[in-house]
Amino acid sequence: MASAEKHHYVPRFYLNGWTTQDESQALRLTRFQWKGGKFLAERVVPRSTACLDRLYSLEGVPIQDQQRIETDFLARIIDNPAGGVLHHMRTAGPRHDLKQEQRVAWTRFIMSLRIRSPEIVEQLNAEAPAELRKNLENDPEEYDTLAEEGDPETLLEFVEKEAPGFIDDFGKRLLPRLIMDDKAFKRIHQMHWWSGDFSDSKVSLLTSDHPVIIMPGIDHPGCVLALPISPTLAFFACPDERVVQFVLNWNRTSLVEWLNATVVRLASEQVYAIDDCQAEFVRNLLRMPTVD
After folding, report:
1. pLDDT tens digit string along 36-63?
2. Per-residue b or e along 6-17, where b marks 16 or more CB atoms closer than 10 Å to that residue's CB
3. What gap in Å lies between CA 96 and CA 110, rounded to an integer?
């Protein structure tokens, strides 16, 4: 049923890379989080974490259309193609050579991870409807010249009548447009790409509910974009070949430690690992939620 839809803001196919089989043969990963003032390290299945009920559901449309952002956009256009690319990168290792359509799919996936989080959705839901109402109330004279007899008195009232719920859902409706932003897409797509193999590192790679690292900024000529893709592999992109060489020459374990520290600091609530060996490391860096 639509009312029971769970929407993953960190997709299961991505989290599966940190799973191992338990005694019941179930694939689980280790999830670190603060809850009720306690730091927890729990073994969980990917389908039960990094998800919220109806996170992307539209409320002002018929029930058969409520999940279309999740099913028609995120699943079909973003996650399904990216899942194949991720499988290829994990199996091919650092020697992978992505085709054009794979680069497009992977770029879209990276952009989605930056936008689809509960925090961004909450912000859009809080700000976008009010901004749209404000814009609809601008230039009332223009509407007056176009309105026909029997139409509502204002454009705002017209939209509320003809498209009930559209304004309240406007924040979620912006998600596809933000994820498909051409400027950010071109910036990432044109960077130098490679994967780092950290099988020889003393510590494994962590990930989190905000796993994409972009420092100092996507428009900076010295930008470094990084995304852990397994406990031993990380994806990198840089616009400058000199920065690429700097990263490649970094000590392997030191680079993993930097990646892990950054991923944990970027996390909103949850960090994921293949085991609990780095529990103390995560505990010291993961922000404790503020109590309202």
Report:
1. 999 999 999 999 999 999 999 999 999 9
2. ebbbbbbebbbb
3. 17
Instruction: State how far the Cα of 39 lies from the Cα of 152, in Å rounded to an integer.
Output: 55
Query: Beta strand pairing status for 192-197 and 233-238?
Result: antiparallel
The residues, ordered by sequence, that sit 6+ positions from 173 with a Cβ below 8 Å of its Cβ are 58, 69, 166
Distance, in Å, from the CA atom of 99 to the CA atom of 45, rounded to the nearest integer, reads 32
Q: Specify the pLDDT at position 156.
A: 92
Question: pTM surpassing 0.85?
Answer: yes
Q: d(Cα 70, Cα 29) in Å, to the nearest integer?
A: 24
- 195 CB contacts (<8 Å, ≥6 apart)? 89, 93, 94, 96, 229, 233, 234, 235, 236
- Dihedral over Cα of 64, 66, 67, 69: its sign: positive
42 bridge partner residues: 31
The model's pLDDT over 228-286, given as tens digits with 9 standing for 90+, comes to 999 999 999 999 999 999 999 999 999 999 999 999 999 999 999 999 999 999 999 99
Reduced to 3 states, what is the DSSP secondary structure of residue 181? coil
CB atoms within 10 A of CB 166: 16
Report DSSP state, residue 288.
P
Percentage of the chain exceeding pLDDT 70: 98
Rounded Cα distance between 239 and 220, Å, is 9
Neighbours of 5 (CB within 10 A): 17
**pLDDT tens by residue, 221-234:** 999 999 999 999 99
Enter the DSSP assignment of 20: E
Tell me the Cα Rg of the chain: 22
Give alpha helix (H) positions in the chain.
Answer: 12-15, 68, 80-92, 100-115, 118-136, 140-146, 155-162, 170-173, 175-179, 182-189, 241-248, 252-266, 279-285
